[in-house]
Each structure stands twice: as C-alpha cells, then as structure tokens.
Amino acid sequence: MSGGIVEQESQGSTSHRFGATVWLTGLPSAGKSTLATELAGRARRDSRAVEVLDGDDVRSWLTPDLGFSREDRDANVVRVGRVAHLLARNGVLVLVPVIAPYVASREVVRELHEQAGLAFVEVHVSTSLEECQRRDAKGLYARQRSRSLSGLTGVDDPYEIPPAPALRLDTETMLDAADVLETKLRALGHL
Ligand SMILES: Nc1ncnc2c1ncn2[C@@H]1O[C@H](COP(=O)(O)OS(=O)(=O)O)[C@@H](OP(=O)(O)O)[C@H]1O
Ligand SMILES: Nc1ncnc2c1ncn2[C@@H]1O[C@H](COP(=O)(O)OP(=O)(O)O)[C@@H](O)[C@H]1O
Q1: Which stretches make up the APS kinase domain (predicted)?
Q2: Confidence of residue 18 (pLDDT cuts 50, 70, 90)
Q3: Closest ligand 1 atom, CA of 56?
Q4: What is the pLDDT of residue 51?
Q5: From the CA of 162, how far away is ligand 2's center (Å)?
C-alpha cells in the first residue's frame, strides 16, 4: 500500500499526533537540565519529535529582557509555556528544565495546555537545597554566599514546592531518576 501513514504505522513508528509538555521544576543544580537532555536523547532514539527549552538558553533569545524579580520570572515562565504549547500542539514532546518557582505561573501554563486538550506533566526535581549547594554547577550558591548575587532561588528568593506534581525526582537519592521519568512518560503515552 502507498499510503504513508499506514506504512509508518505498520513499521511501528512512534510518531504521535499530539505532543505534550514535561516541565522539570526545581532549584538551581537540582538536575533539571541533565534529566531533560537524557530524556530527549532517549526520545530521539525512539524517533520521537522532541525539543528542550532550557532556562539558561531560552533566556538568551526568548526572554533576554527579563531578570529575576517575581514579575519577570512569572513572565518568563508564561512566555516559555506559550512556546511549549505551540510545539506540543504540533506533535512535539517538549521538555522544559526551567526553575518556575511560583505555583501561579506554573498553573497558567497548565491551563493553557489543558484548554487545548494537551498534556502538561509537572515533574518536581526535588533534590535538596543542601545537595544543590554541594553541586553548585554554575557557582551561583558561592556567589550568593559572597554577596555578589542576591535573589537566588531557594536561598534568598522563594521556591514554591509543587503540591501535586505528576512525579517527584530527587536526583541525589534516586540513581535511576531518568529511568523513572521514562517509565512515567511511557505509561502516560507520551513516549
Ligand atoms: N537569582 C537567580 N536565581 C535563579 N537562577 C538564576 C539567578 N541568576 C541567574 N540564574 C541562572 O538562570 C537560570 C534560571 O533561569 P530560569 O529561566 O530557569 O528561572 S525562572 O524560572 O525564571 O525563575 C539558572 O539556571 P539553572 O541553574 O540551570 O536552574 C541560573 O543559571
Ligand atoms: N542524578 C544525578 N546524580 C548526581 N549528580 C547529578 C545528577 N543529575 C545531575 N547531576 C549533577 O548536578 C549538577 C547540576 O545539574 P543540572 O542538570 O545542570 O541542574 P539544573 O538544570 O537543575 O540547574 C551537574 O553537575 C550534574 O552533573
């Protein structure tokens, strides 16, 4: 048969008609980017259309005008959420490792997705502050201690813990956090 779609299906293609947004929220150095990159690699090996919208990267081209006040963080989260929504509605699995410290703006993004019938999977990367400070991948905690930076999430700026995420992953105590996330996304039908 020459019908492309039927051929794809008979070959076991994993192409999905609908995408989803998987938001990895948590403190700096919790392991959000590491998990997103690992999952994106696994999804690509499965021929899944996937994008990663990483906080650090996205801030350089989508939200360069925004800083780290509450107002700016909320605007950042909603703008990133809108891009994720556009991608998700075109079949892309969108992985978003962005701190998103406030419940309210995370809920705005959830609503945006749910109103369009799209899945919004909130994953709390719940690695403790103590472990994040030990890792200090970008030296932010050291800069806060030496007072060359202020308003650091989890230290002298708020982080509102998600009350009911789809998943909590502590990358210090769970050595298989990526496997747990993959299993969850497969169970939800997003992989
Ligand atoms: N004050 C302060 N607080 C938190 N993070 C800071 C700050 N200043 C700079 N950075 C760097 O910016 C990255 C966080 O950007 P996000 O877009 O994820 O943050 S937010 O959701 O808008 O709060 C964050 O990246 P990650 O460490 O990967 O989380 C930091 O590298
Ligand atoms: N499961 C893990 N076990 C140990 N270290 C990890 C784990 N996941 C991430 N890390 C380390 O933690 C640091 C911060 O990770 P990163 O993904 O950049 O955090 P975030 O995006 O949350 O700021 C990196 O040095 C990374 O190697």
Answers
A1: 19-170
A2: confident
A3: 13
A4: 98
A5: 20
Q: Domains of the chain by range and CATH?
A: 14-186 (3.40.50.300)
Which 3-state string (H, E, C) describes the chain?
A: CCCHHHHHHHCCCCCCCCCEEEEEECCCCCCHHHHHHHHHHHHHHCCCCEEECCHHHHHHHCCCCCCCCHHHHHHHHHHHHHHHHHHHCCCCEEEEECCCCCHHHHHHHHHHHHHCCCEEEEEEECCCHHHHHHHCCCCHHHHHHCCCCCCCECCCECCCCCCCCCEEECCCCCCCHHHHHHHHHHHCCCC
pLDDT-derived band at 177 (thresholds 50, 70, 90) equals very high
- At residue 153, the pLDDT reads 98
Q: Is the CB of 145 inside a 6 Å radius of any atom of ligand 1?
A: no
Question: Which residue has the CA at smallest separation from atom 24 of ligand 2?
Answer: 137
